């Protein structure tokens, strides 16, 4: 009963304009999507289906399909239907979906079909990881890509070998969720942070009541909820709209060595260090000359190679990092030297090796 009265009082709580909502920081354990996949046939193609001589499983599937409708073909029958394609159908089953609802499906060619444009998917069971059928797909495909050929030339726009069927599958079985029968919920943080977990626990207990929330670890907070499903939904709606100030992320320097991108976190600090970084440029130019022999001589005209080599070195100054240097000072010092992103990568790696960089260096 105590939780019921708490809920009535929470309706008047106005979320703070500062911080972030709990619903943007966590997901509820057990409330998740599930992947479905199936194998089927697309028919009605305009001579753009599988070449059955090269894709034998399309012929086998077509024979099995016809056999289910009483059409028995000899094993020696060689089907050459170019308006059929073998496809893989996959979909995502949302949480709390009920039998009779519809979901979108994506259809992709398995063989060498050139295009699925204009095709229709035949009834295809979609199975989950446990092997059970959760939905059945069927319908006309929507394909955004197309291709054309003429006199040995061809053009293809987007991907014509894949398409979608909006609301193309009917759900036949739902997935049980602990949300419907458990009196406790676990809020899972997207980013592991003990400070955020503690602040979230304190905020929920301050609004809902002492002892209603308990931090399990740095990524999970357990919350006691009402037993009645209707009250549980109302309770979760209030909790997920509470706002907290997340904990600040640890000091990191993210380096993408391929693109030269460097991202420096707010709490990065540099201990006393002196840095000097200069670029050595070597330029080689080739200017061949033609050697012409004298008239009426026995000589031959030849090309004589001639190369010029020039070496230049930028006179970049040395700059000094004092104790406790902030992010703004790091960027200003590097910019004064004129270092490019690639140079900054080398500087940060050298500072880490010297033990002067107080941050985690992440190289991608």
Walk me through what this model shows.
By secondary structure, this protein is an alpha+beta fold. The chain folds into three domains: 2-30 and 183-244; 34-171, no CATH class; 252-363, no CATH class. Helix content is 20%, strand content 35%. The protein has six helices and 25 strands. It has helices at 2-10, 56-68, 194-208, 229-240, 327-337, 341-353; strands at residues 20-21, 26-28, 34-43, 84-93, 102-109, 120-127, 133-140, 146-150, 153-157, 162-171, 184-189, 213-215, 220-224, 243-244, 252-256, 261-264, 269-270, 273-275, 280-286, 289-291, 302-304, 307-313, 319-321, 357-358, 360-363. The strands form nine sheets. Strands 3-4-5-10-7-6 form a six-stranded antiparallel barrel. Strands 2-11-13-12 form a four-stranded antiparallel β-sheet, with helices on one face. Strand 8 and strand 9 (153-157) form a beta hairpin. The longest helix has 15 residues, at 194-208. The protein is flat and about 95 Å long. The two termini are 53 Å apart. The model is unreliable at 1-17 (pLDDT under 50).
Number of domains: 3
Uncertain regions spanning at least 5 consecutive residues: 1-17
Distance between the termini: 53 Å
Percent of residues in β-strands: 35-45%
The radius of gyration computed from the alpha-carbon positions, rounded to a whole number of angstroms, is 34 Å
Strand order of the largest sheet: 3-4-5-10-7-6
Query: If you average the pLDDT, what whole number results?
Result: 79
Main sheet characteristics: 6 strands, antiparallel, barrel
The chain-level structural class is: alpha+beta
Shape: flat
The helix content, as a percent range, equals 10-25%
Total E-strand runs = 25
Q: Count of helical segments?
A: 6
